[in-house]
Design a protein that fits this description.
The complex is a heterodimer of chains A (about 325) and B (about 500). By secondary structure, chain A is mostly helical. Chain A has two domains: about 70 residues, no CATH class; about 190 residues, MetI-like fold, CATH 1.10.3720. Helix content of chain A is about 80%, strand content about 0%. In chain A, helix 9 runs antiparallel to helix 10. The longest helix of chain A has about 35 residues. Chain A starts with a helix and ends with a helix. With about 500 residues, chain B is α+β, with helices and mostly antiparallel strands. In chain B, strand 8 and strand 9 form a beta hairpin. The longest helix of chain B has 17 residues. The chains are: A mainly alpha (about 325), B alpha+beta (about 500). At the A-B interface, helix 2, helix 3, helix 5, helix 7 and helix 8 of A face helix 1, helix 5 and helix 11 of B.
């Protein structure tokens, strides 16, 4: 197990190094000079040069890469060029919007998907199954930003139950949750549709397994067998999908954050790219990559812990 | 159980009820968020939108109509030769951190802006200053290398506000000015809060506090106003929604003018645009009203030169370039392009450019000019079009006030090089008497109009949507500013 873990750890470090190189290289070649952008069309060339020096852009790209990576290793994400505050501070503010939003959406999605998937599987081919599967088709097909606009139209503009957007901060947790509700629903529904379909097909697979037949033979009704044995086993592929969806929700809320003008990580990346605040983009993307790689590493270890075959192979 | 229900009910009420707003605060939305809060260190207009006249003040300032009025300087004397300005500063002015504002701070601010390593985006405003001397605690003398009729105007810009050496280090995140509002809080990405400055030296504003919100998406902007999340939206980004607000008794719509001359920028050094006949042909191919109606939903005033129509010195030169496709084809034939030609049309993000670009491309195609449209982000536009001059045509609104002087710079991106015009601008700079200046400005407008340097399209309008009851907002935008000093709620 230790050898396996060390092997995974080495590959984790290599992945991170490669990721840092790729991210830095790709972002640095985006056309557009950050200093010229900040100073606008009336700036004099000597002013732009002075600002470039202040930002450290007059140094070679290799020096800047090593400065950035050594900074990251020491937990220093650098200083934002446009906001002129530490990137770590920007991230820590924004993560308190994006992370709760992702978790909220994930919970909503599971709350909708599990009952719907189980219900559909237990009534395979019936009108309930057909209705739910039809609805999930629709859910998968509807773009979440469009759905978000419809939610705003109904619940913010017509009914006035919610604000159209913005985030009041966690000073008042109820208000904060309320502000995240419409965005979370908009994010959750398409995910729930996918999840419900996975749940249903996974359950149907399980229902054909031998252990279900055994359970039925021991006298359980179809429904009892489904609840006691099939659901639990069907959850494994569902959890894998949930894991994948979480990284999508964390990084992929950019459009929803834009529609609801939420100060999240996605919007930070978006604003930073258009302002060519490259250091912010690089550090945030690196953080997201780090999160995904570490989550995968943990999952690998967890698989190995439950499945001895994996350990033996390593 | 009963208690739980009551608790749940009261929680629900707390959750859903919208709290009634006290009428001495306002929530104002603008489209772009300031990248930082240092008006002396960047070109982003959003910095001035939030801070100009609210938090920071300069020696002079713009009023709602664009006139130059007194700011921290209460009076001034100009020497007979026009090169020495002596400013008498207001007494009893303190910065928000409690320190006194005096002539030393003025000297510090001006010297900092014109220093070798200055990162002031409008360093040109300070270019003529040769010396700043403190005569008395509240008297400061500025010496110029030559007379400059624009000097008081230059000092009114947001980039020329007075800052203090004590607070300069953190100005980007904690702006300390002398204005009627103090900076309270900035939740980056969401909102920025200002509070009334109890120690303000001038007339106290009516508002106790103000919140700025930043909503860039046009659909979200519409929703925020309709849901009454914001009390006013300055520079509402979707003109197509304005009729709906006008019809709604809850809202008022104010349409004002800006200093934004929207032009079809033309690369004067790139063939075939180095031929004035071709540029004239382009000018006749353009139907300004179709662009204003199609791209701006009717908002905007046609212009025939690079000058704001609401400026007293404006000359109506629309007659130089009426929409006349036949004439355009004749001119193209005369220039040797009877079969037309192909060029590039590079468009920055604003809707005037993207929507206007499609319409202009169709109008040019009608006379035989094919355009290859490329959509660019601003940073790319600055690199490709502005810096590298790699373009045939582009569409940009030049929003700096009184910027006709850019035509005197042959290295400016549209590369117009006319020694007569350059001499005229030098003469203008050295002229301080208003009548003489207006004559020279009229001449300048005529020269660039008759040289068809760029396609002159329209003056950008600004739309404000506000709740009925909000009064005192600026209708026009003589400079990027949301001046809250005169804003109040009707009783």
């Amino acid at each position: 197990m230790i050898r396996y873990a060390l092997g995974r750890l080495t590959s984790l470090i290599i992945s991170l190094l490669v990721a840092s190189l790729v991210i830095f290289a790709v972002i640095e070649v985006i056309p557009g000079d950050p200093a010229a952008f900040m100073l606008g069309v009336n700036a004099r060339p000597d002013t732009i040069a002075a600002l470039r020096a202040e930002m450290g852009l007059d140094q070679s790209i290799i020096t800047r890469y090593f400065d950035w990576v050594t900074g990251l290793l020491q937990g220093d994400f650098g200083q934002s060029w446009t906001y002129k505050t530490p990137v770590a501070e920007l991230i820590s503010d924004r993560i308190w919007v994006s992370l709760p939003l992702a978790i909220y959406a994930l919970i909503l999605s599971a709350l909708i998907a599990f009952p719907a998937g189980i219900f559909a599987a237990s009534r395979r081919g019936g009108p309930g199954d057909i209705t739910i599967m039809g609805a999930t088709q629709l859910g998968v097909a509807i773009p979440n930003f469009w759905f978000a606009m419809i939610l705003v139209l109904i619940f913010a503009i017509n009914l006035r139950w919610f604000s159209a957007g913005g985030f009041p901060g966690w000073g008042d947790p109820l208000q904060a949750l309320k502000a995240l509700t419409l965005p979370a629903i908009a994010l959750a529904l398409p995910q729930a549709a996918i999840l419900a379909r996975v749940m249903r097909s996974s359950l149907l697979d399980m229902l054909g397994e031998d252990f279900i037949r055994t359970a039925r033979a021991k006298g359980l009704t179809r429904r009892q067998a489904l609840w006691r044995h099939a659901v639990r086993n069907a959850l494994i592929p569902v959890l894998t999908i949930i894991g994948l969806q979480f990284s999508f929700l964390l990084a992929g809320g950019i459009i929803i954050e834009q529609v609801f003008f939420l100060p999240g990580l996605g919007r930070l990346i978006f604003q930073s790219i258009s302002a060519r605040d490259l250091i912010v983009v690089e550090s945030v993307v690196m953080l997201l990559v780090f999160t995904v790689i570490v989550v995968n590493f943990t999952v690998d270890l967890a698989y190995a812990a439950v499945d001895p075959r994996l350990r033996a192979k390593a | 159980m009963y208690q739980f229900k009551r608790l749940a009910a009261s929680a629900a009420i707390g959750l859903w009820a919208t709290t009634a707003l006290a009428q001495d605060s306002i929530t104002v939305a603008i489209q772009l968020e300031p990248p930082n809060l240092d008006p002396t260190g960047g070109a982003a207009q959003a910095i001035d939108s939030v801070l100009y006249a609210n938090v920071f003040e300069g020696l002079t300032r713009f009023d709602a109509d664009g006139a130059i009025i007194r700011g921290l300087a209460q009076s001034w004397d100009i020497s007979a030769d026009g090169t020495v300005y002596t400013f008498n500063l207001a007494a009893g002015v303190t910065f928000h951190d409690g320190t006194t504002m005096d002539a030393e701070d003025v000297k510090f601010s001006l010297d900092r802006a014109r220093a070798e390593d200055s990162t002031n985006a409008q360093k040109g405003l300070f270019a003529g200053i040769t010396d700043v001397t403190v005569l008395e605690p509240l008297v400061v003398q500025v010496t110029l290398d030559q007379p400059n009729g624009n000097f008081l105007f230059n000092m009114a810009w947001g980039d020329a506000v007075i800052v203090a050496p004590e607070s300069i280090a953190d100005i980007a995140s904690n702006p300390i000015g002398t204005g009627p509002f103090t900076f309270t809080d900035w939740v980056q990405g969401d909102r920025l809060e200002l509070t009334r400055n109890a120690d303000y030296w001038g007339d106290a504003p009516a508002l106790e506090s103000a919140t700025f919100r930043f909503i860039s998406d046009p659909t979200a902007a519409f929703a925020a106003v309709m849901a009454e999340d914001v009390d006013a939206f300055i520079g509402f980004p979707a003109p197509e929604n304005l009729p709906q607000f006008e019809a709604d008794p809850r809202f008022q719509v104010l349409v004002g003018n800006t200093e934004g001359e929207t032009i079809l920028s033309t690369n004067n050094k790139m063939p075939p645009f180095d031929n004035v006949l071709v540029r004239q042909a382009v000018a006749h191919a353009i139907d300004r009203q179709a662009i204003i109606d199609g791209a701006m939903f009717g908002l905007g005033t046609p212009i025939g030169t690079h000058f704001a129509p609401h400026n007293p010195a404006y000359v109506d030169l629309l007659a130089n370039s009426p929409h006349d496709p036949d004439r355009a084809r004749e001119l193209l034939a005369e220039a040797g392009f009877a079969d037309g030609f192909t060029t590039t049309l590079k468009l920055p993000p604003p809707s005037y450019a993207r929507r206007g670009g499609e319409i202009i491309a169709a109008q040019l195609r009608d006379v035989g000019i094919e355009t290859e449209i490329t959509n660019l982000e601003w940073a790319q536009w600055i690199e490709e079009v502005f810096k590298n001059k790699d373009f045939g045509l582009s569409i940009v609104s030049h929003t700096e006030p009184m910027d006709i002087g850019i035509y005197a710079n042959p290295d400016y991106y549209f590369q117009y090089d006319n020694p007569d015009f350059q001499a005229l601008m030098e003469e203008l700079n050295a002229t301080t008497d208003p009548a003489g200046r207006n004559d020279l400005l009229a001449k300048a407008q005529t020269i660039i109009s008759e040289d068809y340097v760029n396609g002159y399209l329209f003056e950008l309008a600004v739309a404000t949507v506000a709740k009925v009851g909000v009064q005192g907002l600026w209708v026009n935008q003589p400079t990027a500013a949301v001046d809250l000093t005169g804003v109040s709620w009707a009783e």
